[in-house]
Each structure stands twice: as C-alpha cells, then as structure tokens.
Amino acid sequence: MRMNRAVLGGILLIILEYGLVPWLIPPAWSGRLMPHLAFVLMIYVAAFGGRHSGFFYGIGFGLIMDVLNYGSMIGPYAFGMGLAGYLGGLALERRPPALAGMMLATAVSSLGLSHMIYLIYRLFSLTSWSYAFAFYWNILPTMLLETLIALAFYIPVRRFLLKSVPSPPEEPAS
Question: Among 91, 105, 126, 118, which residue's Cα sits nearest to residue 34?
Fold first, then answer.
C-alpha cells in the first residue's frame, strides 16, 4: 500500500471536509449531517494496509479533527478513529476486502465512532441530547452518508492506494 498517498489524500480530504462540504450541505441539515471523509479513507487504509497502519492513521487524523472540530476536548476523535482503524484492520485482515465487506466495515465503524463520540461528550456533559435524539438526528444519517461516500470512493481509492503488480511477460509460443 502507498502510505504517502494515503497521508496526502487524508490532508486533501480534511481540507475538503472543512472547506467545501459545509457549503454543499443545506443550512437546515448542517447540524445533522457531518460526513468525515478522512474517516472513510482511514477504513480503506486499515483494510489495505493492516490494523497498525489504520491505528496510526486514525490517531493522526483524529487529532487533526479534534483540533478543527469544536475545541471542547482534545482526544475523542483521535481515540475513536484509532480504535476504529485498529478494529477495522483486525476484522478485514483475514481475507482481501470485497465491496460488501468494505461497506459493512464502514457502516459498523461509523456507528462505533459516532456512539463513542456521543458517549464521551455525554460523560463530560458537553451535550444534553438524549440517546434516541442523537441516534435519529446525527448518528444514523452520518453513518448512511459515510457508507454512500465509501461506496463512491471504492474503486478510485483502491487504484489510488494499492500498488499495481506487473503481470508476468507472456512466453512466445514455440
């Protein structure tokens, strides 16, 4: 896997996530839909690069997201993305991930990250939302949007991250 490309792609996705995506989401939905593009790329890094690559990629870009997000706490996104990257890489390391496996891993990891962020914020009284409201208003729509983004990114990200293996030369017929 090309880790340099993954890091540069993550930086570009962070810039797009905080610079362009807020302009694309309607104002009425801005508090509801929060797609994390670097998180989607982190799932691909964990799937193609292994659990350790996903862990370190998740911690690094999670810290960037902690600094850029709300400023209330440093660490929830780093912890959540690092754990999701490690567990996603652990679940997908046994066999090469197919499309269905990647979408399932993205959906489960997105639910896990969103729940973890909600629970940490609830623990430190940074949110007063009930669980049912948070699930309906934020967690579920974000998971659906991130899974659709992962579906759209599947083929381009595979080509972008994986090294191409040259095919062996054909032997001339005798």
Answer: 118
